[in-house]
Specification:
Nucleotidyltransferase, domain 5, five-stranded mixed beta sheet, SHS2_FtsA, 46 strands, alpha+beta, cell division, single chain
């Protein structure tokens, strides 16, 4: 035999069920109402008062069926809390995501939902809730939805879940009431699950159906679709709403109003006695019209919650159970608000439960008995029991509603999952040729999880008395990288310069200084890598400073001013073709540089158009002569230079000019040898252009000069 209790807000139902070869027989049913408001919205508020009712039912059934020590019960579905949670982690640079990584993400999202739920109740903590199940609603990689995270890579991975929780207080108070009645909890289920299991078996759950259990204080809602239960919900409004409306309208005591409400279901005329003692007979239709507004409020609240839970769409059908479902015209009004045909909203009694037999005919169509019978059957078929495990020395009791895992135990222990993974090591940020590069530290290690001394994972199943030890993973190490690791492979070129072969490598500077490829980088290092590109850069890289200098224009300082002779510099030939100093070079090039020659004083003067001499052509005694007189001179370090003296690149020179003085007749004697005739009696005459002149006569270009010798006449 199966003994089950349905502890509701208004009453407690005790039932004895007998199972024979998968068939169930209802042996007995006892219903007893609470004498006080000991229950509120399915939650036990007065353990002593509730246990007293349980004891009365137990005694009644024991008198008929013998001792009862174990009982199947249900936690109120209205106590279930549903919350969404999401967690995001950086996976940039990490290896492919594994099943263990995904499990960690899912559990972290569940814990986030648990914390959100706890924040809504300021006096609660997150681990004061049992997670009774969760579903993943969305996986994301870099903000894009994806079917599975396993073996995926990217920058960020996210998981979004919807998780269902049951406050521990609900279960603890239920246990306390049973213990006072000297009953041991044989099995536990949830009220929505109980009703669903007997009315909507798994084979029917592919249909989008809403099950509404309308009790006294609340209306519990469960939605099925796609083969599973997709949502639970609760409306804090039920049969008492109608009772209170009757009480207010006709001045009735609450119990009398409750009886009047029940009579509406079976009688055409309801007899009532108000608080003043007046007895009145009210036609059924009249009373329904009087409380029509209350019926509408209940139908409106239930329909809105159904639509909210069902993604704002009407389900295919709605099943109503519970005593409140007998509210007049409620199915019809629900159908209207959900835009469903009237035959798609129906009240279901225990006669709709398959493989169930009951001898009492009056009980077959009572919808308030569906949940108690469902509790007895569901608790036997899929019992929910307690599992006690040890987590890091702390004893944890879990609500065994599914296959429990180590992840469930960590959630129940209040361990913050996001702190279990080791932190990544500090990154190293460097600049390479102006671009910022972040070198991540090593990844933190996953937590070390042991179950009974053996290595385990988040999804390792657990059983009663397991000992679990979890240690935080080691933090990652700070980024360490050599310069060669950052640069990978560096290109090289082979060239020949003036017959000598060179291997050209890129220039590598670290913070402005040449660096070895073996150097370990530090945070904020500035790395510059440059491959020589032009002839000039090539000579710099090969340290041909003398050749590089030859490419510069010939430069001197003249009278304190720097003078450049751009036409006087070395010539570059690349593979036999002349090219400028900014020309590029390639691997295998043959380069020849013809160096610039030294320059003379005369060349400097000519290039600067400076006159060193003044010349005058004349004819002397029939021969052409050129008279020359110095009018300018170059000096180096105070010493006068000759015209053929060499001037070096970078020399400092001074140039001095003299006033130009005309040539006179006597200047020719520096250029000619005059043969004086022998004899003292000889005289001479100076002629310029055939006319007598003097030694001091100025000359002009082309003048014809003569010296005519004559003998003196004898006296």
């Amino acid at each position: 035999m199966i003994f089950a209790l349905d502890i509701g807000t208004r009453s407690v139902v005790g039932i004895i069920l007998k199972e024979t070869d998968g068939q169930y027989q209802v042996e007995d049913i006892v219903i007893k109402e609470h004498e006080e408001r000991a229950m509120l919205d399915g939650q036990i508020h007065d353990v002593l008062a509730v246990s007293k009712v349980i004891v009365d039912i137990k005694k009644t059934l024991e008198e008929r069926h013998g001792p009862l020590t174990r009982v199947c019960v249900a936690a109120a579905g209205r106590s279930l809390k549903t919350e969404k949670g999401k967690t995001t982690i950086s996976i940039k640079g990490k290896p492919l995501l594994t099943h263990e990584d995904v499990m960690y993400l899912e559990l972290a999202a569940v814990q986030q939902a648990q914390m959100t739920l706890a924040e809504k109740s300021s006096n609660e903590k997150s681990h004061h809730y049992y997670c009774v199940g969760y579903s993943v609603t969305r996986y994301e990689i870099d903000g894009e939805e994806i079917g599975s995270l396993i073996d995926q890579q990217g920058d960020e991975a996210s998981v979004e879940v919807i998780a269902t929780f049951l406050p521990k207080l609900v279960v603890e108070s239920l246990l306390a009431a049973l213990q006072r009645a000297h009953l041991e909890m044989e099995a536990l289920t949830l009220e929505p699950i109980a009703a669903l299991n007997v009315l909507i078996p798994p084979t029917m759950r592919r249909l989008n159906v809403a099950l509404v259990d309308i009790g006294a204080g609340t209306s519990d809602i469960a939605i099925t679709d796609g083969g599973t239960v997709i949502a639970y919900g609760m409306v804090p409004m039920a049969g008492d709403e109608i009772t209170e409306a009757i009480s207010d309208a006709y001045l009735l005591d609450f119990p009398l109003a409750e009886q009047a409400k029940r009579d509406l279901h079976t009688k055409e005329t309801v007899t009532i006695t108000d608080i003043l003692g007046f007895e009145t007979e009210v036609p059924r239709e009249q009373m329904i019209a009087t409380i029509s507004e209350a019926i509408d409020r209940l139908a409106d609240a239930i329909s809105k919650e159904i639509l909210r839970l069902n993604n704002h769409q009407s389900p295919k059908a709605v099943m109503l159970v519970g005593g409140g479902s007998l509210t007049p015209e409620l199915p019809k009004r629900l159908a209207q608000k959900l835009h469903l045909p009237e035959n798609r909203v129906a009240i279901r009694g225990i006669d709709a439960i398959q493989k169930l037999h009951i001898d009492r005919e009056e009980m077959k169509h009572r919808p308030e008995l569906v949940t108690p019978i469902g509790i007895a059957i569901a608790a036997k078929q899929t019992p929910i029991q307690y599992v006690t495990v040890e987590v890091n020395g702390q004893s944890i009791r879990l609500f065994d509603m599914k296959q429990l895992t180590i992840g469930d135990a960590l959630l129940a222990a209040g361990i913050q999952l996001h702190k279990l993974y080791g932190k990544p090591g500090l990154a190293c940020v460097v600049t390479l040729n102006g671009n910022t590069i972040t070198i991540p530290g090593t990844h933190g290690e996953p937590p070390m999880i042991m179950k009974n001394g053996e290595t385990a994972t988040f999804d390792t199943p657990i059983k009663n008395s397991d000992r679990i030890v979890v240690e935080k993973g080691k933090d990652g190490k700070q980024a360490t990288v050599q310069l060669r690791d950052l640069l990978e492979s560096l290109p090289t070129k082979q060239v020949t310069i003036n017959g000598q072969q060179y291997t050209i490598e890129p220039l590598v500077l670290r913070n402005g200084e040449p660096a070895s490829l073996d150097a370990v980088l530090c945070d904020r290092d500035d790395i510059f890598v440059h491959m020589p590109e032009t002839m000039e850069q090539l000579l710099q890289a090969t340290k041909n400073d003398d050749l590089l200098q030859q490419l510069e224009p010939f430069t001197i300082t003249l009278n304190g001013k720097k003078i450049k002779f751009s036409e006087w510099c070395a010539t570059i030939y690349r593979n036999g073709m002349e090219c400028p100093r900014y020309a590029p070079f390639e691997d295998g090039d043959h380069i020849v540089i013809h160096q610039q020659n030294e320059r003379t004083v005369a060349q400097i003067a000519e290039a600067r158009q400076l006159k060193l001499h003044y010349s005058l052509p004349i004819i002397f005694n029939g021969e052409t002569l050129t008279l020359t007189k110095q009018i300018g001179a170059f000096y180096r370090n105070g010493e006068q230079l000759h015209e053929d003296d060499l001037v070096q690149h970078g020399d400092e020179l001074q140039f001095s000019e003299r006033k130009i003085e005309p040539f006179i007749f006597q200047d020719i004697f520096q250029y000619v040898q005059v043969d004086i005739p022998q004899g003292a009696s000889t005289t001479f005459t100076l002629l310029k252009n055939g006319k007598p002149t003097t030694f001091y006569e100025t000359l002009a270009p082309g003048d014809q000069l003569e010296i005519v010798w004559q003998k003196k006449k004898q006296l």
